[in-house]
Write a sequence for this structure.
């Protein structure tokens, strides 16, 4: 019977902040992975890097985004800014919300994954995004690391990793 | 009560296939979720369609939003013979596309059936890479008991494509 199983524990950033959030030794026994994050930084960045198996190379993606007044689409070809976050100047006590879904993460093909990400703060200049990403690497995913583009994660930022098993 | 997420069936194409059908879907769940990691055996990207209960009549419609990395657009199609759930990589791509299709309240016999889908094709050939989301409507009050998946007439489901159907039960 397939279930939606948490891998390890939810990472909750403490009062001292955190420079990275890591999920290591991810077992290969699931079908798909789901990464759920709620993040805020102590600096002005609104994107975080995602490295897979320690690699920051061979990422690409397409994004569909809306900011409350217009919709647009962007390509991502040269960096691994993959996970959205709220920045320090956003409305107090607001955190981003994102889900990254990795299909067939342990297979031997390039890794396609999707994301739904939002930054709602009851203010202007925030976005909701839908992404299609590709990590052009045939290795099974066994490590995910999220790190800010600037600064550190603040207290109460969280990240959880789930495995979905098809049988 | 905790909702559970259970696999109903899963399929991996052992070779190129014209179609795949999930049959005898039990009515005991609340919602269905179809997850696909799929590409076409055709030379170029093709459209994947979903139909229900062997209904190939013009009883489906869709509204979608999509982006190609430079512009965003929205479109609607009505009176279609299937729900377009993705324009996915073909043999000229580097990998598989992803589809996540949620069908709420699928087993009732009083309402038309609505599903939300999102798909991505970043592994497709340059110029055919998209991210998209949409809604598909089947104008039938029948409970969904089967879901058929097939590419448009120009392509088959490629080897190693996977389809997994999950049931979500609220209890």
């Amino acid at each position: 019977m397939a279930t939606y199983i948490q891998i390890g524990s939810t990472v909750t950033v403490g009062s001292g902040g955190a420079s990275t959030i890591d999920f290591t030794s991810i077992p290969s026994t699931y079908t798909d992975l789901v990464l759920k994050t709620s993040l805020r930084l102590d600096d002005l960045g609104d994107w975080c890097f995602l490295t897979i198996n320690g690699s920051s190379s061979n990422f690409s993606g397409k994004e569909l985004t809306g900011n409350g007044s217009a919709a647009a689409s962007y390509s991502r070809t040269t960096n691994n800014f993959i996970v959205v976050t709220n920045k320090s100047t956003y409305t107090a006590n607001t955190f981003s919300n994102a889900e990254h879904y990795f299909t067939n993460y342990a297979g031997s093909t390039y890794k396609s994954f999707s994301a739904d990400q939002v930054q709602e703060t009851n203010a202007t200049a925030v976005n909701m995004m839908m992404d299609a990403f590709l990590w052009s690497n045939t290795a099974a995913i066994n490590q995910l690391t999220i790190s800010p583009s600037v600064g550190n994660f603040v207290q109460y930022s969280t990240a959880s990793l789930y495995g979905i098993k098809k049988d | 009560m905790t909702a559970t997420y259970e696999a109903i069936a899963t399929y991996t194409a052992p070779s190129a296939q014209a179609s795949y059908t999930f049959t005898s879907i039990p009515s005991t769940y609340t919602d269905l979720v179809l997850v696909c990691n799929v590409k076409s055996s055709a030379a170029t990207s093709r459209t994947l369609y979903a139909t229900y209960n062997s209904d190939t009549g013009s009883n489906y419609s869709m509204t979608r939003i999509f982006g190609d990395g430079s512009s965003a657009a929205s479109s609607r199609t009505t009176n279609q013979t299937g729900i377009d759930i993705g324009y996915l990589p073909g043999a000229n791509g580097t990998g598989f596309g992803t589809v996540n299709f949620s069908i709420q309240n699928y087993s009732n016999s009083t309402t038309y059936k609505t599903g939300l889908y999102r798909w991505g094709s970043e592994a497709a050939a340059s110029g055919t890479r998209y991210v998209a989301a949409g809604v598909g409507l089947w104008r039938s009050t029948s409970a969904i008991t089967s879901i058929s998946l097939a590419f448009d007439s120009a392509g088959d489901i490629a080897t190693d494509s996977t389809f997994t159907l999950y049931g979500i039960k609220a209890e």
Notes: The longest strand of chain B covers residues 4-12. The interface with chain A takes residues 4-7, 10, 35-37, 65-72, 74, 94-98, 100, 118-123, 129-133, 160, 162, 164, 166 of chain B (CB under 8 Å). The two ends of chain B are 6 Å apart (CA to CA).
